[in-house]
Design brief:
Radius of gyration: 15 Å
Largest sheet: 6 strands, mixed
Low-confidence stretches: 1-17
Mean pLDDT: 83
CATH class: Mainly Beta
Oligomer: single chain
Length: 174
């Protein structure tokens, strides 16, 4: 699992609000899908399957604002968010998803949320064992308060052939 934050993306309008919840303290929550987001710096994240996440990165290419995600390797999906006026640190980001072969169905790490810039939290599908169709939910909370929640639906590449086609052409990072 990789988290990316503090890089700018130009994205169109957000999808239907039924997939997105945001607390009044949150100014913006925008889901996105991108083909192979850039690698960042590794940071310890013991609540994840790999035990670490990546932070940072440059502007990714092939970006869409959607919660429908085709199951293709190297696709990255997540949320760009910003608080309305206060800083929340730490923010616990939790990914809940259908179980992997090893039984993992929840992963979490810490991030932050502030009003002065966009913060990104994302997941990159890197291994076949992560290619699990169904609902994946990203929840951000601080001190027991849910700040935002976004529901992604991962499914067959045919569900969104444009994203699948473009992401399939991106060289894989092995």
């Amino acid at each position: 699992m990789k988290a990316f934050y503090l890089f700018a993306l130009l994205l169109p309008a957000a999808p239907a609000s039924s997939q997105v919840f945001k607390d009044a303290a949150v100014a913006e929550v925008e889901p996105f899908v991108v083909c192979e987001a850039p690698r960042g710096e590794p940071v310890a994240a013991p609540g994840t399957e790999e035990g670490s996440i990546e932070t940072g990165g440059d502007i990714p290419r092939n970006t869409w604002t959607t919660t429908e995600v085709p199951l293709v390797r190297e696709v990255t999906f997540g949320v760009r968010a910003r608080s309305a006026s206060e800083t929340f640190d730490p923010v616990t980001i939790t990914w809940s998803h259908p179980p992997f072969e090893n039984g993992t169905s929840n992963q979490s790490f810490e991030n932050r949320l502030y009003p002065d810039g966009d913060v990104y939290s994302a997941y990159r599908i890197e291994r076949d064992s992560e290619m699990v169709a169904g609902e994946w939910v990203l929840t951000a909370s601080h001190a027991g308060r849910e700040l935002y929640r976004v529901s992604f639906i991962l499914g067959a590449a045919e569900a969104d052939p444009e994203i699948a086609r473009q992401c399939a052409g991106v060289p894989r990072s092995e």
